[in-house]
Amino acid sequence: MPYEYGGTTSDGFDCSGFILTAYQEGLGKQLPRTTSQMLASGDVVHPGEIKPGDVVFFRIGGKEQHAGIYMGGDRFIHASTSVGVTQSSISGYYWKGRLTQARRFD
To answer: Which positions fall inside the NlpC/P60 domain (predicted)?
Structure first.
């Protein structure tokens, strides 16, 4: 699925739109629409306690502006501007050192 800024459908997602849709369709949960709204809600998860399904946030360009869903085993799924919805390694070349926090939405 391609990346589309502000997108919330299979025609194209941005990172928060993908998370919003995945939680709504997969779990029947309603999450806030934007990354900044997600950062202001949910329960803070400490780095050693991140579990599959938690939302992970990354600092890019000096601010927390990217997010994905942790899958376990150092992997997360997200909507990337370059390749659309994809899996990446948290410790991979681009993402290493950019993870800033995680939130749990129960």
So the answer is: 1-106
